[in-house]
TrEMBL record:
UniProt record similarity statement: Belongs to the shikimate kinase family.
Function: Catalyzes the specific phosphorylation of the 3-hydroxyl group of shikimic acid using ATP as a cosubstrate.
Compartments, as annotated in UniProt: Cytoplasm
Pfam families named among the record's database cross-references: SKI
Cofactor(s) needed by this chain: Mg(2+)
Entry protein name: Shikimate kinase
Keywords recorded for this protein, A-Z: Amino-acid biosynthesis, Aromatic amino acid biosynthesis, ATP-binding, Cytoplasm, Kinase, Magnesium, Metal-binding, Nucleotide-binding, Transferase
PANTHER family to which the protein is assigned, alphabetical: SHIKIMATE KINASE, SHIKIMATE KINASE 1, CHLOROPLASTIC
Pathway membership, UniProt: Metabolic intermediate biosynthesis; chorismate biosynthesis; chorismate from D-erythrose 4-phosphate and phosphoenolpyruvate: step 5/7
Cofactor binding summary note: Binds 1 Mg(2+) ion per subunit.
One MF annotation (Gene Ontology) recorded for this entry: kinase activity
Keyword tRNA processing: no
Organism annotation: Alkalibacillus salilacus
Amino acid sequence: MTSIALIGYMGSGKSTIGCQLASQNHRKFIDLDNEITKFEGREIATIFAQEGEEYFRQVEEKMLNHFCEDNVIVATGGGIVMNQNSRDVLKNCFQTIWLEVSYSVVEERLQLDDTRPLWKQSKEQRQALFERRQGLYEECADIRVSVNERSPKEIATEIERSI
Ligand code: S3P
């Protein structure tokens, strides 16, 4: 059966909502960043620092491919849509759900975060990245769900009704 992929910007709640959705649906939850960390034996920030973003995107693409027919719920990384091949996999092999969040909500949620390499840029760069990705999320999404000011349970229940 087709797997479900959750996409959206950093801090949109993909892992929290994915976990909630999986438990409500009795399906297995996969956090793609965790799988990459396990496979590589190093943290995401270390992979970025040692190999660069392009390498990370290739590993991310392989991992995404790996889970497409497993009937699982996958929380992807926020930048997966930057890779054309990953976008094709999302469009062709997954039911893809975009967790649409406002930039101001992300800023508030991630203000103290220092684990995400691409969050450590200037605010202008983070916001430009956010804007650039909106169209790519839209291109890949079968379903879009607004996540601002709503609980994970509420959001997961809305997703459950539409899948
Ligand atoms: C990234 C988002 C991160 C992680 C990596 C790159 C991005 O995942 O994959 O740091 O490019 O937006 P989250 O969206 O779970 O933070």
